């Protein structure tokens, strides 16, 4: 089943097109890796999928769910690293976009958040200050928050950037398990070879064109070598 359909999408920054006439679909259970050089519009595309883009032409449609039901793990920032809250509070904040707040959903949301914390091996950290955690632990907490927002789709923007090798391996394995459990994954990555190990499909945004197809088709195309040459 097609969950997201993008048709002839052109995004603008000021007066310039970031990318033009982009077409692709996201099927239920996909693990779509988004590649491209810096400035090609990867993060811009994710923001448009979340409804955060303003200037564009074309169409984005969602089948069976709304964009409010998409979980988003953005790129790490210094502000996130020093977030003044405990782990449980950070995770529960993922429910804020679902249209219910405070005590009206507290019992149900806390139960669901606790289940996600357990699934991601974070139960022992639930009362810890977020700012005291390692980088890998923080990313898993933010992934847990994204799961609270997500019903069917997760968008991940460079989720392992800045992490050491063991933390990267751990986070990749967590994402892999979520995909195996039925979650649709869209992930921006510069780790080309590593990302392709799990990808079912690839979207590569180029300077003047784009590639969209299976990971096998991508490996056989010239886009993979172009991506490496472009330094993505």
Write the layout of secondary structure elements.
Blueprint: E1 2-13, E2 16-27, E3 31-36, H1 42-49, E4 56-62, E5 70-73, H2 78-81, H3 87-92, H4 103-119, H5 135-149, E6 153-157, H6 165-180, E7 184-188, H7 192-196, E8 201-205, E9 210-214, H8 215-220, H9 223-230
Parallel strand pairs: 3-7, 3-8, 5-6, 6-7
Antiparallel strand pairs: 1-2, 1-4, 8-9
Helix pairs in contact: 4-5, 5-6
Rg is 18 Å
Main structural class: alpha/beta
Quote the average pLDDT: 87
Please trace the helix and strand order, writing H or E for each element: EEEHEEHHHHEHEHEEHH
The number of helical runs is 9
Q: What is the share of helical residues?
A: 25-40%
Beta percentage is: 25-35%
Low-confidence stretches: none
For the termini, the CA-CA separation is 30 Å
CATH architecture of the largest domain: 3-Layer(aba) Sandwich
Task: Explain this structure.
The chain is α/β, with parallel strands linked by helices and 232 residues long. The chain folds into two domains: 1-65 and 152-232, P-loop containing nucleotide triphosphate hydrolases (Rossmann fold, 3-Layer(aba) Sandwich); 81-150, no CATH class. It is 37% helix and 26% strand. The protein contains nine helices and nine strands. The chain has helices at 42-49, 78-81, 87-92, 103-119, 135-149, 165-180, 192-196, 215-220, 223-230, and strands at 2-13, 16-27, 31-36, 56-62, 70-73, 153-157, 184-188, 201-205, 210-214. It has a six-stranded mixed beta sheet with strand order 5-6-7-3-8-9, with helices on both faces. Helix 4 crosses helix 5 and helix 5 (135-149) runs parallel beside helix 6 (165-180). The longest helix has 17 residues, at 103-119.
